[in-house]
Design a protein that fits this description.
The protein is globular and about 35 Å long. By secondary structure, the chain is α/β, with parallel strands linked by helices. The longest helix is centred in the N-terminal third of the chain and has 17 residues. Strands 1-2-3-4 form a four-stranded parallel beta sheet. Helices cover 35% and strands 18% of the residues.
């Protein structure tokens, strides 16, 4: 698996880089995971890893529905909880996925 994250570039640059990375990943049959960018993951048909900062748990069902609308088997593959937020809930299992 290959995960792409870059917070230091514009949206256009991010999309362009993600597309180039996807082409390379597909060439080697490696799944691509997009970090914190639901829109890009949906556009590319890539897997998605989100953090609590970018996606509250109650939004996970909505994200899944968007992937289902596009008939994508890929969806959220990871959900990171930042240490400073560890005492905040609910967590994904409580979001009734």
């Amino acid at each position: 698996m290959l995960q792409y994250k870059d917070d230091a570039v514009s949206d256009a640059e991010y999309r362009q880089a993600a597309l180039r990375i996807q082409i390379i990943a597909q060439r080697f049959d490696v799944p691509l995971i997009i970090r914190d960018r639901v829109d890009v993951a949906l556009d590319l048909g890539a897997w998605l890893h989100v953090t609590r900062k970018s996606c509250p748990p109650e939004k996970l069902k909505d994200i899944r529905a968007e992937f289902d609308k596009k008939n994508l088997r890929q969806c959220v593959i990871g959900y990171s909880i930042d240490v400073e937020n560890v005492n905040e809930g609910p967590y994904p299992q409580e979001a009734d996925l």
